[in-house]
Design brief:
alpha/beta, binds glutamic acid, 8-stranded mixed β-sheet, 2 domains, Carbamate kinase, Archaeosine Trna-guanine Transglycosylase, Chain: A, domain 4, 5-stranded mixed β-sheet
Amino acid sequence: MTEKKPIITVKVGTSSLTAGEQTLKRHLMVDIVRQIAQLKQQGHSVLLITSGAIAAGRHIINNKVRLNRSLPTKQMLAAIGQLELMQAWRDLFSIWEIAIGQVLLTRADICQRQGYLNIRDTLHTLLAHGVVPIINENDTVATDEIKVGDNDNLAALVANVVCADLLVLLTDQEGLLSGDPRKEQAPQLIPLVECIDASTYALIGAGAGTQGTGGMATKLQAAQLATHSGTTVIIASASRKDVLIQLAAGEKIGTTFIPKITLRESRKRWLLSEKPQGSIAIDAGAAMSLVRSGASVLPAGVKKVASHKAFERGALVEVLDPEASPLAVGLVNYSSKEIELIAGLHSSAITERLGYSYGHEIIHRDNIALLTKQ
Ligand code: GLU
């Protein structure tokens, strides 16, 4: 069996794309694209979280109108600049004949169950087809209540959705430093952080760059979020030669934050922390594959919806064995109504029966937590 290459999520901020100036610098972008192309050639799946829309929009419109700092103004700039940003990425990725897909997200989309499943399915399908998802916050609809607010935290949420092995936060510093470089002389690089706590935050100043929204504080928040869900996080310099290639090869560059838990364990804890909203009964064969190899629950192995209360796609349900004992909990890709229609069918018959399909699985193996000891 060939070893599965890690899924790598790369986040690049406005200052790394503009070198602190007013426009997107394609010579900087092309270097990132070249490295992603090489990683893909090595078999990695790569997602790119990119800022730069607002900066690009400001550059296009700045000379023509006076701008205030209101949210609608920023949203206008993002709407103008997102096109410019994507066009630049598309032109550069096309040099290596790599297709890209634009994915614009808000926190509300990710935190809401159906949105979570839809995003996850879309991202995995893009990756399965060799496409690089290019992700940014959907600034047009983002208000304070629903926005992530900075792309460092957005990248951590995306890493969680796709169960990324590695999240690389590219920035204009070598990594986390022992002091604020604007105030102290020659602060040292901290190569490894095993636990992010108040003392880690104390190392940094207020620290946001002039154009982006992040700085080191949001990078630490993102690192905290991602390491808690099983992803290794590295903060490294965007301008270091071949930084992504070297990191993927396991070289010690920048600051590495070690995950507290495995991806699988974190997923399991999350699933077990919630109350199931219904249950489905599976047959003996499906129960055996589930327990022995953590297999997905397919329609063919499902006997019926066992609970009386209806549930929606994205609900957490219990999976019952033929003796009606709970075996596992998992997030369903289909509502109870849909499961009633497709129970017992081969997955290839889903579209014919429903007129559409959310995929082969009723519960995907990544979204299942076994209740029995493994
Ligand atoms: N979504 C914003 C943009 O594209 C960037 C947010 C951030 O830099 O964190 O300009």
